[in-house]
Specification:
The protein has 2 domains: 2-53, no CATH class; 95-204, no CATH class. Helix content is 67%, strand content 0%. Helix 8 runs antiparallel to helix 10 and helix 9 (153-159) runs antiparallel to helix 10 (162-179). Mean pLDDT is 74; it is low at 18-23 and 90-94. It has helices at 2-16, 18-22, 29-36, 40-47, 64-88, 96-101, 111-120, 124-141, 153-159, 162-179, 187-204. It is an all-alpha fold.
Amino acid sequence: MKWVKLYIIVFVALWTCPAAAFVNPADTSFVQKEFRKLDYDKTTKKLVPKVSRIKPFRLPQIPPTITYIVMIIIGILALGGVLMSIRSNPSTQAKPADVANSIEDISEVDLQKILRDALAASDYRLAFRVRFLMILQDMQNNGMIRWNKYKTNRHYIAELPSDLKTNFRRMAMIFDRVWYGEQELDEATYHQLSVHFDSFNLKRR
């Protein structure tokens, strides 16, 4: 009876699972064939969005000519703003003293204007120096001396004719005492000392 029952169980198993009786566990070709039957393209196409079909957003291109014009306009406006700030700021404007101290070629300097500006500002000490420079400028233009900003008054005395040496030496001593001695001048003292300049000009002519 035991053999009959065992035979029935084996027969039922083979009848219900006929494929399992003929599949070799080591043979994977059957499994591969079954997987090939599955169509993954249809499912993945439904799940994965179509990114490649989305058009990227692009800014409109500006012509190079318009770009250059805009840059030029911005540059002009910036330069105008700088110039306006310089003109409106008194500290950036050249002062008479700065101009007088930065003379490179005395023949090309408008000393008359510097003198007027100094007198208008009541800077009589600077005006006194400009008067002295005007004498040197006049002698330079007339070929009596060769002006150089590194020369001293002694160099100019040596270059002058004998009849002018004494008067120029006296005037130079007064100038050195006022300017290099940092002596302050008021209006009355300025006019009083300026007589020496006028006297030298008369004798030189």
